[in-house]
Amino acid sequence: MDLTLKVNYVAKDEIEEERLNKQVPSLRNFDFIKVLGTGGFATVYMVRKRTTGMLYAMKLVKKDGVKQDAVKFAQVYTERQILQQLSNPFLVSLHYAFVTTNYFCLVIDLCTGGELFYYLQKN
Q: What does the pLDDT look like over 62-87, one tens digit per residue?
């Protein structure tokens, strides 16, 4: 398996064409490479988009884990809303958000430098 990083090197016209066609992605559009982290009700994976070869981070939130708890559901919904509104080169961007039978899915930029919390503790 070739893990050559192609992060942020896809032609903008490919991305715009995808948006204009209003293609809603699904889990089948991504190859899961490895787990980046886990939390109480979500798991974050490194994924590769099959059509472009781009690497992303995909957060899969279990519906069963948040549907019963209004506070957790509000957190997931608020996270999606905030990521959707962000437009800053120093912050991750939300590329896709979709729902499957069992998961809420957020596909964001992949940041390979480790956890920010680690760097905050050093100073």
A: 998 888 888 888 888 999 999 999 88
